[in-house]
Design a protein that fits this description.
By secondary structure, this protein is of the alpha+beta class. 31% of the residues lie in helices and 28% in strands.
């Protein structure tokens, strides 16, 4: 038995319905499971990965995603929440020079400071 991939709009509606019932969801995996169950009410072969559900939730604008993270070495090129490009935030040093103070995602609002941080837990609720 195969599966079908629902549209982004169907997934966003399913996420909204799940959060209306549950209130808050405390993990990406739980979000994926709950949204898949909701989508199966529409079409029995619909499935969505937890990562895709997270990215769609972050981009909707009406779902608030709280991120718990830890420090990590290395550089970030794309947002670890919604996979969009990150923009550099700048500040002025004591000597008047322009310095990079962190990275910001213009789509979902993810922000990291001078120390790079990787998300370890996502919490979803209606904002």
């Amino acid at each position: 038995m195969g599966y079908h991939i629902p549209s982004n709009e169907e997934v966003a509606i399913a996420i909204y319905q799940v959060l209306q019932k549950q209130g808050t969801i405390y993990s990406q995996e739980e979000l994926g499971e709950q949204v898949t169950q909701e989508l199966k009410k529409i079409h029995s072969s619909y499935q969505v990965s937890p990562q895709r559900a997270r990215r769609i939730a972050a981009k909707t604008g009406y779902i608030k995603v709280t991120i718990h993270s830890r420090d990590e070495e290395g550089h970030l090129k794309n947002c670890p929440v919604c996979d969009s490009g990150l923009q550099r935030e700048h500040g002025i040093s004591l000597w008047g020079k322009k310095v990079i103070t962190g990275l910001l995602c213009p789509i979902c609002g993810y922000r990291t400071g001078k120390r790079r941080q990787r998300p370890t837990r996502y919490i979803f609720h209606l904002g």
